[in-house]
From TrEMBL:
Residues 75-86 have a biased composition (Basic and acidic residues). It comes from Nonomuraea rhodomycinica. The lineage of its organism: Bacteria, Bacillati, Actinomycetota, Actinomycetes, Streptosporangiales. This is Prolyl oligopeptidase family serine peptidase. InterPro entries: AB_hydrolase_fold (IPR029058), Peptidase_S9_cat (IPR001375), Peptidase_S9B_N (IPR002469), Serine_Prot_S9B/DPPIV (IPR050278), WD40 (IPR011659). Residues 108-372 form the Dipeptidylpeptidase IV N-terminal domain.
Length: 688
C-alpha cells in the first residue's frame, strides 16, 4: 500500500528533498555546482557538479562518506538553519573561490574543503564548531566563525588565527544578528575583499537585547534556553563594521542608522546599505577600506516604509550601479540613475550581474514570477511560459528553474551560450494528487485567488463546505502559478472541502500601493480582503460553495489571520485552526512589526487595533490554537496568552501544544498528524 499524502509530505519535507538548488556557475560557464539529496526522501544534502560541455553530472561530496554526525550541531548553526527555513541536513550551504575550483562547507560543526575537479575533500583542524565558512576569492584562505570569533585559515600553510575575538559573551564577529537573518534576508556577517587580503566584518553585541526563556515543559529536568529576543519597542543588538586585514590591521566603518541591511565588496566598491529604525529611508554608501570613511551614493525614502531587495547593490563592468527602488508606482530596476523597467513590471530581486547584463525576477501578473535581462540597451524576457521562475547567470550560461500548474515539481535547465539546454534532474517524490486548481481574480479589488476543488467533485452536485487557506501577510504570496503551492490545499479539498486561497492587500506582486495598504493596521485590510475574495468566489461558483459552513486555517501570519477571522467575523467564519499565530504584535520582533505599525510607545492604539486580546470575549466559534513550544520566532507565549484571555472571558477553545517543535515543524510524525488532526477538527466543527 502506498504512503498517505500526509506521511509522504512529512518524509519529503513537503516534497523539497531531491530538488536541485544552490547553484554556482563557473566564470567560463563550463561547470555548474549545486546541491541535491540523493532521493526524494533522503534528508542528507550532497554537493554535485555538472560539466556543461559533455553534459555529465558528478557527485562531488557525499556527507555520509565523511562520517559526520549531525546530531550535535552547534546552536548558532541550528539558529541559522531556522532563520533560513532549512529543513534538510548534510551540505546545506557552501562557498567557492572566484574561479569555482574549490568549495568550503561546514558539516556537523567541522570545516571541510573540497577540490571540485577531483572531489578530494579534507577536514581542516579548527579549535571548535564552525559556522558560515567562506573562501577568499583567490582560494588561498577560508574565513569562518568559531565561538564568536572571526578566524582565517591559510589553506597552504595551515596557519589558523583569529582576526577578531569577542570581548564579552554577548558579542560575535562575522555573524548576522537575529533581525538581519529573520527579517532582512541577510544570512551573513563577513565579506571578503576582491583581492582576498581583507574582510568586512560585522560585530554584533546583543547585550542591550532583552533575554527571554524558552522552556520545554515536557522535560522539566532540562533548563530553559535563554534567548535574546528584540521584541517591538525594545532595544536591538548593536551592530558595527570593521575592515580586518590579514596583516592584522583593523579599520572601523562607522554608520549612524540602526540597521545594516546588506553589504557588498566587488572590484568597483565596498558598499554598505543602512536603514534607520523607522525604516522610511534606505541609504547606500561607498566605503574607503583604508580609512573607513563613507560617501553617500543614493538615498531612497518612503512615507510608509522602504523595501529591502535582495541582489543589490551590484555593478556592471563599467561601474554602473544596479539598484531596485520604488518609483512612479512600481518597484523598478535602476542602472545608474535611470529606471530601465516600467512601473507596471514589479521587480522582485536581482539574481545575477554578468559583465554588462542583469538577470532579475519580476511580475507583471502577480501570479507569475518571470525572468528578464537588461543587456545594457533593452529588456529581454528570459522565461516565455506561464509560471514561477528563478535562475542564475555567469559566463554567458544560465540556470533556469521553472514551476507551473501544468507540470509537477521543479524543472531545472542549464542553457549554454550556444542555446543548448541541459536538464538537471530532480529526484523529488511525486505527491500523487490530482490537482484541480483554478486561478483567477475575485471580489471588488480583483484579488488574485485560487479555487481548489476535490478531484472527484462534479460541479453543481452539491454545495461543499469552504476552507479559506491564506497566508495573507506581507512578504509572502500563496496564489502563484505553481503546483507545489497547492499540494496541502488539494489534500484538504480531497477530504470534502472547496478550498479558497486569496492574496489580499499587503502581499507582494501588485506594487507598492497595494503592499502599503496595511500601514498602521495589520488586521482590518487583510480580513476584509479574505471576505471580499470569499464572496467573489461564491458568485463565480453559486452552486458549489456552502457559505453556511466556512472554515479558515493558517500558520504564522496565516494563523493570526485565522484567529482574527473567527473573533471579528463569526457571521462569515464558522471555525478556525490558528497555527503559531502572532496574537499581540508587541510580542513580535522590532524590524518586522515596527515597519508596519511603528513604535508601540508612540502608537499604542495601532498595536491595540491589530491585537487579538481585545477580541477574546467575542469568540463564539470553534478555534484550535496550535503552537510549537520551542518556537523562537513566534514564541509560544502568543498562543498561551490568548488562551488565558479566552479562558478569562469564559470562551471555549482548544490548544494543541507541540513539545520540542520550532516554527518550521520539521518532525515527520508532527507534520503528518497535524494535517490529520486539522481535518478532524474542522469536520467536527462544521458539523460534517
Amino acid at each position: 500500500m502506498s504512503e498517505s499524502f500526509p506521511r509522504l509530505s512529512a518524509r519529503t519535507r513537503r516534497f523539497t528533498l531531491g530538488v536541485p538548488r544552490g547553484f554556482t556557475i563557473s566564470p567560463d560557464g563550463s561547470r555548474v555546482v549545486f546541491l541535491r539529496t540523493r532521493t526524494g526522501t533522503d534528508p542528507v544534502t550532497c554537493l554535485w557538479e555538472l560539466d556543461t560541455d559533455n553534459h555529465v553530472e558528478r557527485l562531488v561530496v557525499d556527507p555520509r562518506a565523511l562520517d559526520a554526525d549531525e546530531g550535535d550541531l552547534p546552536p548558532e548553526e541550528r539558529a541559522r538553519r531556522e532563520r533560513s527555513r532549512e529543513q534538510a541536513g548534510g551540505v546545506v550551504a557552501y562557498s567557492t573561490d572566484a574561479g569555482v575550483t574549490t568549495a568550503a562547507f561546514a558539516l556537523a560543526g567541522g570545516l571541510y574543503v573540497t577540490q571540485l575537479a577531483s572531489g578530494a575533500t579534507r577536514r581542516l583542524d579548527v579549535p571548535g564548531a564552525v559556522i558560515d565558512p567562506r573562501l577568499s576569492p583567490d582560494g588561498r584562505n577560508v574565513a569562518y566563525v568559531c565561538e564568536g570569533s572571526l578566524r582565517v585559515q591559510d589553506l597552504v600553510s595551515g596557519e589558523d588565527r583569529a582576526l577578531a575575538t569577542p570581548e564579552a559573551p554577548t558579542v560575535t564577529y562575522g555573524l548576522a544578528e537575529f533581525i538581519a537573518a529573520e527579517e532582512m534576508d541577510r544570512m551573513r556577517g563577513h565579506w571578503w575583499s576582491p583581492g582576498g587580503d581583507a574582510l568586512l566584518v560585522e560585530r554584533a553585541d546583543e547585550a542591550p537585547v532583552r533575554t527571554w526563556y524558552v522552556s520545554d515543559p515536557a522535560n522539566p529536568d532540562r533548563p530553559a534556553t535563554a534567548q535574546r529576543y528584540p521584541a517591538a519597542g525594545t532595544p536591538n543588538a548593536v551592530t558595527e563594521l570593521f575592515v580586518l586585514g590579514l596583516d592584522g590591521s583593523r579599520v572601523a566603518v562607522p554608520f549612524a542608522d540602526e540597521y545594516l541591511t546588506t553589504a557588498a565588496w566587488d572590484s568597483h566598491a565596498l558598499s554598505i546599505v543602512t536603514m534607520p529604525r523607522g525604516q522610511k529611508a534606505l541609504r547606500l554608501f561607498e566605503v574607503d577600506p583604508a580609512t573607513g570613511a563613507s560617501t553617500l551614493v543614493r538615498e531612497d525614502t518612503d512615507p510608509a516604509w522602504v523595501d529591502v531587495v535582495t541582489g543589490v547593490p551590484a555593478h556592471l563592468d563599467d561601474g554602473s550601479l544596479v539598484w531596485v527602488a520604488s518609483a512612479d508606482g512600481g518597484n523598478r530596476l535602476f542602472v545608474g540613475d535611470r529606471a530601465v523597467t516600467p512601473p507596471t513590471l514589479q521587480v522582485r530581486a536581482v539574481l545575477d550581474v554578468d559583465h554588462d547584463s542583469v538577470l532579475f525576477s519580476a511580475s507583471g501578473d502577480p501570479t507569475e514570477i518571470q525572468l528578464w535581462t537588461w543587456d545594457g540597451h533593452s529588456l529581454l524576457p528570459v522565461s516565455t511560459r506561464s509560471g514561477v521562475f528563478s535562475g542564475r547567470m555567469a559566463g554567458g550560461v544560465g540556470v533556469l528553474t521553472e514551476q507551473s500548474l501544468d507540470a509537477e515539481g521543479v524543472s531545472t535547465t542549464v542553457v549554454r551560450r550556444d542555446g543548448v539546454a541541459i536538464p538537471i534532474p530532480s529526484v523529488a517524490e511525486r505527491p500523487g494528487l490530482d490537482l484541480r486548481v483554478s486561478l483567477g481574480r475575485s471580489g471588488r479589488r480583483e484579488l488574485a485567488t485560487a479555487v481548489v476543488l476535490p478531484s472527484w467533485y462534479e460541479p453543481g452536485s452539491g454545495r461543499l463546505p469552504v476552507l479559506m487557506d491564506p497566508y495573507g501577510g506581507p512578504h509572502a504570496q500563496r496564489v502563484l502559478n505553481r503546483r507545489g503551492g497547492y499540494l496541502e490545499s488539494q489534500w484538504f479539498a480531497e477530504q470534502g472541502f472547496a478550498v479558497v486561497v486569496a492574496d489580499g492587500r499587503g502581499t507582494p506582486g501588485r506594487g507598492p500601493e497595494f503592499e502599503r495598504a496595511v500601514l498602521n493596521d495589520l488586521a482590518t485590510p487583510v480580513l476584509e480582503d479574505q471576505i471580499d475574495a470569499l464572496q467573489g468566489v461564491a458568485q463565480q461558483y453559486p452552486d458549489d460553495l456552502d457559505l453556511g459552513r466556512v472554515a479558515i486555517r493558517g500558520w504564522s501570519f496565516g494563523g493570526y489571520l485565522a484567529a482574527l477571522a473567527v473573533l471579528r467575523r463569526p457571521d462569515v467564519f464558522h471555525a478556525a485552526v490558528a497555527g503559531a499565530p502572532v496574537t499581540d504584535w508587541r510580542l513580535y520582533d522590532t524590524c518586522y512589526t515596527e515597519r508596519y505599525l511603528g513604535h508601540p510607545d508612540e502608537q499604542p492604539d495601532v498595536y491595540d487595533k491589530s491585537s487579538l486580546f481585545g477580541d477574546a470575549a467575542k469568540l463564539e466559534r470553534p478555534l484550535l490554537l496550535v503552537h510549537g513550544l520551542a518556537d523562537d520566532n513566534v514564541v509560544a507565549a502568543h498562543t498561551l496568552r490568548l488562551s488565558s484571555a479566552l479562558l478569562a472571558a469564559g470562551r471555549q477553545h482548544s490548544v494543541l501544544p507541540l513539545s520540542g517543535v520550532t516554527h518550521m515543524t520539521p518532525q515527520e510524525v508532527v507534520a503528518e498528524n497535524l494535517l490529520l488532526l486539522q481535518v478532524d477538527f474542522l469536520k467536527r466543527a462544521l458539523g460534517d
